[in-house]
Design a protein that fits this description.
CATH superfamily of chain A: YVTN repeat-like/Quinoprotein amine dehydrogenase
Largest sheet of chain A: 4 strands, antiparallel
Helix content of chain B: 10-25%
CATH topology of chain B: Ubiquitin-like (UB roll)
Oligomer: heterodimer
Number of domains of chain B: 1
Number of helices of chain B: 2
Strand content of chain A: 35-45%
Radius of gyration of chain B: 14 Å
CATH architecture of chain B: Roll
Strand order of the largest sheet of chain B: 2-1-7-3-5
Shape of chain A: globular
CATH superfamily of chain B: Beta-grasp domain
Distance between the termini of chain B: 48 Å
Helix content of chain A: under 10%
CATH class of chain A: Mainly Beta
CATH architecture of chain A: 7 Propeller
Strand order of the largest sheet of chain A: 3-2-1-30
CATH topology of chain A: Methylamine Dehydrogenase, Chain H
Number of domains of chain A: 1
Chain lengths: 454, 110
């Protein structure tokens, strides 16, 4: 079957990051769209967006795949297979797993009809809780034939959570880790078997973050401030770093795509700092803070407002780092050729609480830059504006009535720089069943946050 | 053993519909059984998707719900784990959530 690279000889994805960069331009984009916390009592859905500028339906939702029950809170998603299985012709990138953070259901979506995906199977959240004592599924990565999913809580919604292991038929195998000693909380993870590495981060227990963000919970130590470097083969934590006040709420973790590299970056969301990690010549993990976004005093606000770096990614050529400041409202591009000294090369404003760009492409922006997804060639950065329903309702309460938006930012990969594309906007405020919230995005052919080369 | 006591629960902002709810039932389950669709997600009191406001009456709910002190003081309960202790009037749905959420940076720290 066609798997995005047009080659029949191989498994999914691409032989290397360099080959991925030369793949055909993305024509479709999948995003989760939510009704949780909007007043529309309908299931969340997968929206298929036409991103082919030569198509008459460019810049619109062309299919909606509804989940089977209300209240999932779809959030992140991941493929059943990626470039890590490129050598295995029996594998294909066909199923997109979309966990519901609130329900703990794992919705498995069949994308073999790419323009009209369908629900293939639902792994029941109740089964997951009963068999593994885990809840709150988040990040999905394939792992050879199998799938592992970071789980943010135990069956009662308390920390620290762990990792759920599914087989290729989406049956529950059990817990992936041998020991979660050292974890306070869980969130995102990234792995690189070549270096026997896995890195995981910490949000908070579901019972803490689901009702909304409360500074009293931060003061009480209910939010994470540690990252964990795992012995990937041994499935145990080999070293944890408590980042202290500079590293509060570390979320997305991104390794460089080049499998020979042991470097990567993550952002501490509340502290709004970016950290760089690498393994030194003695095999020791090193960490350094490389970007620090200052808080801003907002008139009338007694507490200085952090930028809240909510998503971060690295271009396929490992040259640029992008991240979103969800409260301040800007999206930034940094040249990371010098790994320890990122240089800012681009910035655009979209919505946000500072009021710098309330309206973009004729639409009033609800929220601000949040999830981002970059094209394989690095030239097009898609961005959505919703974070999490209860947090949206705290910071951008109008979104529940007006929906979130998706924009496209054109990126200069030669000289650096970003500009908002004036011809693209998908307003989820105009969805047929009522306004919804769009969040993480994936392309059928793979993207810069899915594929790992081993 | 005697059957659990039953109380009248009135959903003020769904046309004032009133249901008999036993003390061993949740308000949410009875509303759903009667075709009133409420927002709901985790169904164990761990998220506040189903929050509503208790206008009058008393309910029993587990101590460890996800509502914080401020939200409880503002009268919010979680329909998925709330059992009536007497006749109650509730407001449900997102339209009852006006005081549920606040921007933590915009309010004074205690």
């Amino acid at each position: 079957m066609a798997d995005g690279n047009g080659k029949a000889c191989c498994g999914p994805g691409y032989a290397s990051p360099a080959e991925a960069i030369t793949a055909d331009r993305e024509k479709l984009l999948y995003t989760v769209a939510l009704y949780v916390g909007t007043g529309v009592e309908k299931p969340d859905y997968l929206a298929t967006v036409d991103v082919d500028p030569d198509s008459p339906t460019y810049s619109s939702v062309i299919a909606r795949t509804e989940m089977q029950q209300i209240g999932d809170e779809l959030h992140h998603s991941g493929w059943n297979a990626c470039s890590s299985c490129h050598d295995d012709a029996s594998k294909s990138r066909r199923f997109l797993l979309m966990p519901g953070v609130r329900s703990s259901n794992i919705n498995v979506i069949d994308t073999s009809d790419a323009t009209n995906p369908s629900v293939h199977k639902v792994v029941s959240g109740d089964d997951i809780k009963a068999k593994t004592n885990l809840s709150g599924p988040h990040t999905v990565h394939c792992l050879g034939a199998d799938i592992i999913i970071s789980m943010l809580g135990d069956a009662d919604g308390n920390g620290p959570g762990g990792f759920l292991h599914l087989n290729e038929n989406f049956e529950i195998v059990g817990r992936w880790e041998n020991d979660n000693a050292g974890m306070n909380y869980n969130y995102d993870f990234w792995y690189q078997p070549r270096h026997n590495m896995m890195v995981s981060s910490e949000w908070a227990a579901p019972n803490t973050f689901m009702p909304g963000f409360d500074l009293d919970d931060v003061a009480a130590g209910k939010y994470g401030q540690s990252v964990h470097f795992w012995d990937f083969n041994g499935k145990t934590i080999s070293k944890s770093f408590d980042l202290g006040a500079e590293g509060m709420i570390p979320l997305e973790v991104r390794g460089l795509h080049d499998p020979t590299s042991n470097h990567g970056y993550f952002a501490a969301t509340l502290s709004s700092n970016v950290f760089h990690w690498w393994k030194d010549d003695n095999g020791e993990i090193q960490l350094e803070k490389v970007i620090d976004i200052p808080t801003i005093d907002v008139e009338g606000f007694p507490v200085p407002m952090p930028s809240l770096i909510t998503d971060i990614l690295i271009s396929m050529d490992d040259k640029y780092l992008y991240f979103a400041n969800w409260l301040h409202g800007d999206l930034r591009q940094y040249d990371i050729t010098d790994r320890s000294n990122p240089k800012m090369t681009g910035q655009v404003w979209l919505g946000g609480m500072l009021g710098k760009a309330p309206e973009v492409n004729g639409i009033k922006v609800q929220g601000a830059p949040q999830m981002i997804q970059l094209s394989l060639d690095g030239k097009r950065l898609y961005v959505t504006t919703s974070l999490f329903s209860s947090w949206d309702n705290q910071f951008y309460p109008d979104m529940k009535d007006k929906g979130a938006q998706m924009y496209l930012v054109d990126c200069d990969v030669e000289n650096g720089g970003m500009t908002i594309n004036p011809d693209f906007v998908v307003d989820f405020g105009k969805e047929p069943n009522g306004p919804s919230r769009c969040h993480e995005m994936r392309y059928p052919g793979g993207d810069v946050t899915s594929d790992i080369w081993i | 053993m005697a059957d659990p006591a039953t109380h009248k629960v009135t959903v003020a902002n769904r046309g004032g519909r009133t249901f008999d709810v036993r003390e061993d039932q949740t308000i949410l389950d009875v509303c759903e059984a009667n075709g009133v669709i409420l927002p709901v997600a985790c169904r164990y009191g761990g998220c506040i998707t189903c929050a509503g406001r208790l206008v009058s009456g008393k309910v029993r709910q587990p101590k460890g719900t996800a509502l914080n002190k401020r939200q409880s003081q503002a009268g919010y309960i979680l329909m998925c784990v709330a059992h009536p202790k007497q006749d109650c009037v509730v407001e449900v749905g997102v339209e009852s959530h006006g005081d549920l959420y606040q921007n933590p940076f915009s309010v004074p720290r205690k």
